[in-house]
Structures are given as structure tokens and as C-alpha cells.
Amino acid sequence: MTPPGAHTLAPDFATRLATILRALIMLIARAYLKHPRVALIFPLIQRLQRTARVITALMQGLAAGRTPRPDPRRNRTRPATPRPKFPTAYGWLLADLKHEAAIIGNHLATLLAEPDSVALLAARPHAARLLAPICRALALGPAPANPRPPKPFPVTPPDLSILWPFRTPLPQFRKRT
Prior knowledge:
- The protein has helices spanning 6-31, 41-64, 92-113, 115-123, 125-137.
- By secondary structure, the chain is mainly alpha-helical.
- The chain has a domain at 6-68 and 85-137.
- The chain is extended and about 70 Å long.
- The protein starts with 5 loop residues before the first helix and ends in a 40-residue tail after the last helix.
- The relative contact order is 0.14.
């Protein structure tokens, strides 16, 4: 469902998000030049730029009133090119870049916490899924309006025969008075 006023809210959200991601890109480029993770600079910057481009396109489509279409390229086979492996620890970017990343993360958290942003991300769940790894890297928690809740664990009753291996029933103890 398209939130009311999306034609004015979506471009503003996309512009603000792209500005925050550009600041994060500049910080990464400057900080990782003399860091052991120098090999991550180019793939990480590419990922952030692609995220900004895709979310901007999604928000422009939302503002124009278009519904998202399934990507016909999704079922194509791709050549086996190795994908870069990014760290997966919670807050890994924040741990590397310290207070400067915390400032950018605070700006991003403020933007994502606004009710209009939550409504826009609920209207375009793909945008929320794109923001989830960035939020995790900056220790912001999951992106809001993520439509995929975790799967519940199956509940099985405990096997009490392990605790009392004898075939006799458990002894009943009287309470002391």
C-alpha cells in the first residue's frame, strides 16, 4: 500500500539517504587506505553506491505511482564470479571506523526512525532488505519494516525417560511439615 503523500516524501527520503550513504563512502575511502582491510574499499563502495541507486529508483517509482515488477533477470544464470566476502559481525564497520561511523549511523538511525520513512520502507520491502546489512554493519539493529520475521523453532516435548531410565514411575516425595 502506498502511503499518503508518497509522491513528495519518497524523493526527499531517497535524497537524504543517498547523502548519508555518500558520507559513509567518503569515510570508508579515507579510513581504509591504511587499514588491513584495504581490499574491502572498492567492493564496499560499489555495494553502497548500488544500494543508493536502487533505493533512489524504488522511491522514484513509488512517487510516480508505479508498482514494483518482478525482475526478469532474476532467473538467469550468472557466470561464476566470486563475490567479495564482507565481515558479518554485528557492528563491524562501527568497530573499525569508531566515532565517525557512529555519527553517520546516528543520522541513518534518525532517518529510518521517522514515521514517513517507516511507511515508505513498508511500501517497498526491497529497500528495507537492502538497508539491513548496512544497519547491521553500523550496529543499528535490523532495518525497520523488514517483512521477513525469523522462523520459529519447532517445539518438541522433552523426553523424560533420559532423566529417569528405570521403567518404574518417578518416586513421589512427601513434603515436610
